[in-house]
Design a protein that fits this description.
The protein has one helix and nine strands, in the order βββββββββα. With 115 residues, the protein is an alpha+beta fold.
Length: 115
């Protein structure tokens, strides 16, 4: 079922890093939305402008409000029973650091030894 949801991001706040299980089509009603995508690119969307966020864990992003007024977004998406609107994740850099830390720990421990 298609759903329209109003999302407000207060001044100085952000959405946290996340992705959407289904595609989201949205329009910024007020304020200026700044999004940082997984590849590090920055996209700014102003009132009256629309955006599309593709579905899936490879589409990680964060929405940020750097301005003095709230950002209000109307988002249209397909609601699937039991499926959240957004899935919170680590930032791409934190996820890379986590993987690097695990690799370093494995190297420190070394391969299993047979007695």
């Amino acid at each position: 079922m298609a759903v329209i949801r109003s999302i407000t991001i207060e001044p100085g706040e952000n959405t946290g890093w996340h992705y959407h299980p289904t595609q989201v089509q949205a329009v910024v009603v007020s304020g200026t939305l700044t999004r940082v995508l997984a590849d590090g690119s920055v996209v700014t969307t102003r009132p009256g402008e629309s955006l599309v966020e593709l579905a899936g864990p490879d589409q990680v992003h964060i929405g940020i409000n750097h301005e003095a007024e709230p950002v209000v977004i109307l988002a249209n998406f397909e609601e699937i029973e039991g499926c959240p609107f957004a899935v919170q994740v680590l930032s791409p850099s934190a996820a890379l650091q986590d993987r690097a830390d695990r690799s370093a720990a494995i190297r420190l421990v070394g391969p299993a030894q047979n007695p």
